[in-house]
Amino acid sequence: MDSRAPIFGFNDARDEIVRTVVDRVVGSTRDPLLAMNEAAYQEAKRLEGSRKPQDIRELAEWQRLARSLGRMHDGERRRRLRELSEEYAWDIAGNFDRRVYQLSSRLLPPVVSALLAPRKLMTVVRDPLKLVSLELLADRVLVEGPLAKLRSLVQRGTAVYVPTHLSNMDSIVFGYALERAGLPPATYGAGKNLFTNPVLSFFMHNLGAYRVDRRIRHNLYKDVLKTYSGVLLERGYHSLFFPGGTRSRSGGVERKLKLGLVGSAFEAYTRTLQSGRERRVFFVPATINYLITLEAETLIADFLSEAGKGRFIIEDDESSRIGRIASFLRKLLAMNAAVVIRFSEPLDPFGNRVDELGRSFDARGREVDPASYVKDLAGKAVIDAARDAQYARELGEEICRAYARDTVVMATHVVAAASFARLRSQAPAADLFTVLRQRDVITVPRDDLAADVVALCDRLRALEQRGCIVLGEDVRLGSGGDIVERAMRAFAGYHSSPVLDSRPDGIALCDTNLLFYYQNRLAAHGVAWDVIAPPGVPSGLQVQPPLPPLEPASSPPPLEEPRGSASSSSSASSRAGEADAHVGSMNGAGGGQ
Amino acid sequence: MSAPGSALPAPSVGVIGGGFWGVALALAASRTGAEVLLYSRREQPQLRGGPRIVRDHAEVARARLLVIAVPSNAARTALRALGDHMDGSHLVIHGVRGLEGEALKTVSDLVREETPARRVGALGGPVQEDELREGRPSAMVCGSRFPEVHAAVTAAFQSDALHVYTTPDLQGLEWASALVGCLAIGVGFAEQAGAGPGLLAALISRAVDSAARIAAAAGAEERTMLGLGGYGDLLASIRLEGRPEVVLGKALARGRTLDEAVAEARLRVEAIPLIPRVVAFAKARRVDAGVFEALETTLKGGAPRAVLDRMFAA
């Protein structure tokens, strides 16, 4: 592991980072009056009605500010704007403690061990290995993907990890995966609500997490946040974003992303070009796959409740209950390959693939200079928010394709999909809620369910051969019966009521909501019912197979040779393109001449 | 002409494709003062003094704004060859009417697959080749998500005689252009079969509505088909006796076989293979495509009267 990663010097640089952020935010705010008015309005709206003394105090302050803004002269407004930005920037800024990192990196999150037995925290500090055996964990949590390439890339540029998001465990699990992969730690934004737990908060604070207060909705705060993450990227801090924005409520793999923070990478990269110290940015999509999800019950209930759809922050789910976390971890530690973190092929910000030397290649495998994408007519690197928003959008689509291809199918997903198909076949024309209402109505003979699972696995195997999905070990190697058995063992004892129940005449399909949740993992691939496609995304979208792999980089890179062969093929192909002899079918191509 | 760009050197435009449309676009661009390179395999003696003919992809790729004007079946090959000489700084637009293959890929999809360019766009709308060539007033649409592309296209093409409208809905414009190509066959057919102005208007309106839904199922915005790039483009076909799609439709209405009709149209009509694929697409997405089904029947030699009834009923 490389301890030269910038995050190890974060505490020394923090003042400067905050100063840069504040300067940029203040400098780019054209109308301080408008910005502060909007902030005051949004904050007053949020704080009104709260009875907490702290909130009441804040509300009064905002109201005072709102009243006085109109009378202030411009200099004073700028000063207030600076103060506010500074307050926010410090609130966001994190901390990084090497000792805490070294301690925590020894185990699947010490946080977790601490939560398992909070009183043992001191034992953990003295001897971390006592609590959990690392070898044991290595079988439980698998880390896959082009790890050697990633290790090479983090030496050459800034990595932006963009994994799928299912659970509050994700950032912890992902941090562990980075450590296991021999990759330096990444900084990331964590919801402020996660900082309320003193134990969790202690580690988060010291592992480079910065705080995101998702209750604050006004643009000034968002500006500060976005600028903050941009400045970190610009300075080479490897970062972690969950571009889904929030945990997947349905259990499905993200097909639409929120790109605000991701978008800050374009400006960061352009700034490094402008300063003459190009530092390339590499996006690394990843999937975090769980045999069972800690918060499955809450999330799917939220997805299904009409009112819940707007609920962005859930503060009372399983991840806030120590008992649930403990039983989740006991389950996880009892089953092999219960969590798989799979890194995808890294991309440059413009969706091009990169090799281990950090060079970008287009879809045809031709090397391309990433700087060319941010250059204007005169060949100068320029920041252009409108342009970058489009790049971000296209990158988002590319990231979603990577998610689909690197989704790891586990026993619970396949068995849930087979079970849910049974539920549907009982009422073929029914809508989702009618299907879901059949709780504990249907019992499927074991052999039949196993046969369904086998059929499903055949389809999945065909998808895998085209590079469109990945089968977990259990699904790849197990017989139909094995897979059903494993799924039942995974469900049993964790979820509060049985998901599948073993009866004399077969397997009863009990918790239809959870079956729906777990089958949704396969919805985007067309092998499970897809009622969760986000608006604007066609349902059952075909997952695109990956591009042929890049030739392994040979260093030093070959000189002009590939160009020569390319241009000879180009003349051949333009001969083939001779068809322009009869145009006519193009736009408005005036006919009849 | 707009002032802001006037301090900069004249924008350099590269047009790929020496057919009618490519030549017309090259002429329109050179009329605004742009330095224009035209990649063409043919001699273009009529162009003396205007666009400069080049025969090398590397040379045409020196222009930052590249305009693809080759038939859709040649687009992939042309782009692949061109891509060897491009990087991310190129802006690539195309005026190709058509969707590729069973997957109905748009040409801008092909640009992304075959070249490193990301800043892509398309041209569409009712402007006709002869209007462009002769500098007669007309209007066209530039579709791109990138404001830079709009700016470059406007700078390169907008003149007193040509207004460039812009839309961010690139995909919508590409689908609209392709679907209008199909519908123009129907317009020709109906005119020849004796449809009066009222019936014709009804057919066109219903057809455009249906096309808008199909395009929306592909992820486009419905309103793009209803605008200049769709409806406007289709209206232009009413008066265009010589438009190949219209000629083809008329020949079919006179009872000619498809092969005879194609021979009569003299130019390749890209809509012929496209129509059944659009029907299949609409079926898979559960969108009504009655008009396109009727067109498919027409191509197979369905009885004119019955076809007209079917179209009207759709």
From TrEMBL, chain A:
It is a peripheral membrane protein. It comes from the Bacteria. It is found in: Endomembrane system. Residues 545-559 have a biased composition (Pro residues). The keyword Transferase applies. Pfam families: Acyltransferase. Its EC number is 2.3.1.15. GO terms for molecular function: acyltransferase activity. Residues 540-593 are annotated as: Disordered. Keywords: Acyltransferase, Transferase. It catalyses: sn-glycerol 3-phosphate + an acyl-CoA = a 1-acyl-sn-glycero-3-phosphate + CoA. Pathway: Phospholipid metabolism; CDP-diacylglycerol biosynthesis; CDP-diacylglycerol from sn-glycerol 3-phosphate: step 1/3. Residues 159-291 form the Phospholipid/glycerol acyltransferase domain. InterPro entries: GPAT/DHAPAT, Plipid/glycerol_acylTrfase. The keyword Membrane does not apply. Residues 565-574 have a biased composition (Low complexity). It is an enzyme of class 2 (transferase). This is Glycerol-3-phosphate acyltransferase. It comes from Sorangium atrum. The lineage of its organism: Bacteria, Pseudomonadati, Myxococcota, Polyangia, Polyangiales.
UniProtKB/TrEMBL annotation, chain B:
InterPro entries: 6-PGluconate_DH-like_C_sf, 6PGD_dom2, G3P_DH_NAD-dep_C, G3P_DH_NAD-dep_N, NAD(P)-bd_dom_sf. Residues 56-145 form the Glycerol-3-phosphate dehydrogenase NAD-dependent N-terminal domain. The keyword Cell inner membrane does not apply. The keyword Membrane does not apply. Residues 169-303 form the Glycerol-3-phosphate dehydrogenase NAD-dependent C-terminal domain. Keywords: Oxidoreductase. This is Glycerol-3-phosphate dehydrogenase. It comes from Sorangium atrum. The lineage of its organism: Bacteria, Pseudomonadati, Myxococcota, Polyangia, Polyangiales.
